[in-house]
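Annotated sample (chain length 513).
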Amino acid sequence: MSGYASPVRDPLITGSKTYAQITEDIVGPVEQKGNLKFWIALAISAAFMGLYFVLVGYTVWQGIGVWGENKTIGWAWDITNFVWWVGIGHAGTLISAILLLFRQKWRTGVNRSAEAMTIFAVVCAGQFPLIHMGRIWKGFFIFPYPNSRAAEGLLDWSSLWPNFQSPLLWDVFAISTYLTISLLFWYTGLVPDLATVRDRATGLRRKIYSHLSFAWQGTARQWQRFESISLVLAGLSTPLVLSVHSVVSFDFATSVIYGWHTTIFPPYFVAGAVFSGFAMVLTLMLVARSIMNLQDYITVNHIESMNKVILLTGSIVGVAYLTELFMAFYSANPFEEWVFKRNRIADPYIFGPMMGVEAAPYWWAYWAMMTCNVISPQIFWFKKMRRNLWVTFVMSIFINIGMWFERFVIIVTSLHRDFIPSSWSYYQPTWVEIGIFVGTMGLFMTLFLLFCKFAPVVAVAEVKSILKTSGDQYMNRQAVIDIKEGAGYLGNDPEEALPSSMLSPRSPKSKEE
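Output written by the structure step:
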């Protein structure tokens, strides 16, 4: 991470921090008992998590008939939530792996939380297909277990085998691989910071963190191996960013259902996953930044960089939406055209009367998706908006809502009206489905809050590695040298050559002013 940083770039670490101050600021909250806000947030999240386990138990006991699904709409909120949670988990791998390979220094302030968010989101996602089975105890059949047992003669050859041609089985392997690599990446980066917590702890706490840090001593050999394994894991993770959500999109793209059967889904799903993942990272980090006083490490520059990625991926998603519409009408396929015109686009106010058709049953979901995902992110073309914290927080919520509606639109509007009008149906979620979805948010937030309490939420070692190139006091000093060399300055005061706008707030000259 070391290297020259242009003075044109804004610092990534502010407050004229020393190495000791970085350790105290980031590790300090882990050693403290937690303030009232933390315990209130944890209590609320744990309550919703408890609701989740109760409702999952109720669903398993009673069967999925307690959901609002029917013979026409077999996939509804459960698979919508599954795809939504998997998408949210994509930002962690992107920030950790791809930005590491490209040596983007701004990742250091947000990578740890993004990696943790990835793991917790995948944990939430993986439960929905199991619950949707109805008989959750049959979940082991999605693995190649029966094949090997049958080969040993322990099971009858007529036993149920997984269908390896089904993209639902591909999901199992893709997501389990993704979870494994992400977990290794996250924990490997945690080891040096856990050792820092260990060195500051006493008693039982010291023993626990000693085991968790694997006796890390920070020797040159250990750091060399740490850097090597980080690059190896980054190389393994990078294809997963593209492959995992592509495989998830195959659940739909390989079918023959109109509205699903399209080749644009893999890149469209990947861009949408990064889009929603970065939005969730911003939602969490803006809250953590305020509560844990991390403004010097998660700066406005970090937030602006993430908003640029959101603008890019949001524009890609918008192009994908328009491409879908174009191909539906250009193909001259009446069934494909029906899905988009009569099931999605036609609202009762503008486009329905314009096209001379009745309003689509789910027009409100489609236009909520378009508004949140395509129209609202365009505000980030303006730098002032990209650097506004309140605008960013509100937009991150909008994007998360819009991406959920995207998955809902893809699944439900393509299923609720098939070729037989007598089978047409309208899906409405039951209180059980709503409670399970809200409960997964409680599970996610409980895991994230516990992570913030017991581990450094910002990567201490990585922040220290960029201090002398991206810290404000060092960048100001480098700017002085650049100006002196460029202007041939020969004075005695090194800050006389520096404009006041480039001075650190703690520098002597800025204090006099």
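Annotation: The chain has one domain: 19-137+164-470.
Annotation: The domain at 19-137+164-470 is CATH 1.20.1630.10 (Formate dehydrogenase/DMSO reductase fold).
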